[in-house]
Design goal:
Elements: H1 2-7, H2 9-36, H3 39-48, H4 52-58, H5 60-71, H6 74-81, H7 85-92
């Protein structure tokens, strides 16, 4: 289903817009200290943003397995559960 979504013109442009917005937001958060160069300046800016980027990036190891399970397609699940034809040929020889 996701393959069809990415191949359709509407899905493609929705992906482009969403990904550009995400990159712009997260790139800005990550490069903020380089623009302000003083701890007191970028610390105040991070406090105004409630350190949300630190939670998103810092907690990634905790919620990455959940995200990968949610994004795994049904075909990937069925492929891992069913043995391939090549492995059956090898076993029978």
């Amino acid at each position: 289903m996701m393959q069809r979504w990415h191949m359709s013109p509407v899905g493609f442009w929705i992906d482009v817009v969403l990904l550009k917005v995400l990159v712009t937001i997260f790139f800005g958060f990550c490069t903020l200290p380089f623009g302000l160069l003083k701890l007191r300046l970028w610390w105040a800016a991070y406090k105004d943003l409630y350190f949300i980027g630190c939670f998103i990036f810092g907690l990634w190891p905790a919620y990455a397995p959940i995200v990968s399970l949610l994004l795994k397609s049904k075909s990937d699940r069925s492929a891992t559960q069913q043995p391939s034809a090549e492995s059956l040929k090898v076993k029978s020889m």
